[in-house]
Input
Amino acid sequence: MSAPPLLLASTSPQRRAILQQLGIPFEAVAPRYVEEDPPEADATQLVCDHARAKARSVSEEAAGLPVLGVDTTVVLGGRIFGKPADAPAAEQMLGVLSGRTHAVVSGLCLWTPEWEVVEAAATLVTFRELTAHDLVAYVATGEWEGRAGGYAIQGRGATLVERVEGDYLNVVGLPAALLVRLLVERFPGLYGVG
Output
């Protein structure tokens, strides 16, 4: 029996690429949910709430398929670093992260008509000390656009990073280790795992 595709409530090319890499069948659809990231919010609760809302926003069109919603943010010292609004904001954000260790926190919701599970995963990322030239050069690449924390580790953003502790794919955009564990628990053997 072949596994039914997951309905991915996301337009993220990184999330699609990770599911392809893992060999998990999926169909992607844009969530009908607008995120708001107040900087003072609890990051874990925030990403879990966003992941749940994204999954639920497309549940009516799931036609019985399991729905996957994911949200990711960057946290340092209790402050949430969402997607920078413009290049100066990206440069300022990366300057704050320079030489420090931040957490990339993701919420993941796996939804079916019978049940829903929402969990979070965190990965620690340490940036090297960045010079003014590093900041200007990286921001000029445009990779910061639409990225929590203002960088893309799977691209040129890798040059900013000194160390990763935990699930690397979580930093890219999908907590793969958490997803695989949930698929093993909820659908043993069905998605090629467990």
User: Anything to note?
Assistant: The mean pLDDT is 94. Strands lie at 6-9, 26-29, 67-76, 79-81, 101-111, 116-127, 161-165.
